Amino acid sequence: MGSDAISRLKALLAEARDLRETLPNADRLQLIGLTEALQHELERPDEAVFRLTFNQPGHYLAIRLAIQWGVFEALGDVGESKKTTTQLAESAQADPRLVARFLRHLAANGTIREVDLDTYQSTRLSASLRQKSFKDAIHFMFDDFYNVGWKVPSFLDTISHRNPAEIENGPFQYAYNMPNKSLYTYFGENSGMAQRFGGMIQMYNAGKPFFWEDDWFPIKERLVEGGPKSDEDVLLIDIGGGDAGDLGILRKALGPEVKGRLILQELKHIVDRADQDGYEAQVGDWYEEQPVKGARAYMLQHILHDYSSDDECRRILKNIIPAMTPGYSKLLIKELLIPDRNAPWALTSLDVNVMQSLSGQERTESQFRNLLESVGFKIDGMWSHKDAIDVVIEASLAKGIDFGLSTSLNAGNDDQL
Fold this sequence. Notes:
Number of domains: 4
Structural class: alpha/beta
CATH superfamily of the largest domain: Vaccinia Virus protein VP39
CATH architecture of the largest domain: 3-Layer(aba) Sandwich
């Protein structure tokens, strides 16, 4: 029976390349999940602990050093050339015996391919690790962020193991001994770390569609229809949308026949460098009442996950409500949505990460519903995409609630309006 199972797995492995290229993404991800589940079932507990404590940290270290030594650049594209340990060590100006040890570990984990004695070729992964965004991600997590994880247990001791909720006094601040300063503020003082973080975000977004593309969020049906009638009206405000130029791309995608302005609201240094090609950029602060009234849509992209405190999220949401026109304006939220059950590691790992970096939290669908309903929104729909792990949530003001007094909306930490 054992030999038969091995034969079936070998046959499946032989088909892996074709499966990768032909399977729908959902099926591909399900197959990956099944292979991981198979490993968990076959692996003894002591083997699992050994893999977690010895193999995985050593593998990450090997990748970090290989980037520093230029190993992946030397190996080139997939199957491009064969390089010996001696050749790779010479180009790295490192001891061949030292380099050989890490090359073997990389090969043991499938990052590079061992094709002969002390001879290696590239793989899809090693070839990709030549890209700047991939290297930035490795450097940020290894050089800038590893030490934060080491400090999490002792940090939680200091707050009696409550859920971290202070964006300026969380695990990151504790590890770097810089209280009362957010991660983003620190980026302004450490441009190298900020650049590495930005590269990591580029890697995260690579290959994923914009929220209006590829039948994801039906923007024309949900916003354009029944939306602005003139170029003076506002179609969409992207609150804290960053400097990736998304709105300029959206304007081109919509075409000149679609009416309404697109507005980015951001910090001054981002506004100052915005190209404003097809959109406007203005200084904004989500902690202040929204100044642009009556827009068709107000959007928060990866903003609410910065805050594990629902009260802080309510504060941001309540600052948007007075600007909204009931029955016309919509709220769009683009965030991760963790399933209430059987959440995949790709989502749970990001939840743990945002807790360490920002004292933030990725939310489940039920948590989002409770949060939005607590300030008077109703959810009109949620849209996902096969190639993205975010969802787009559309909400509108619920009927029968008084939205007239902004002072009451911003007073205290009331659960209900």
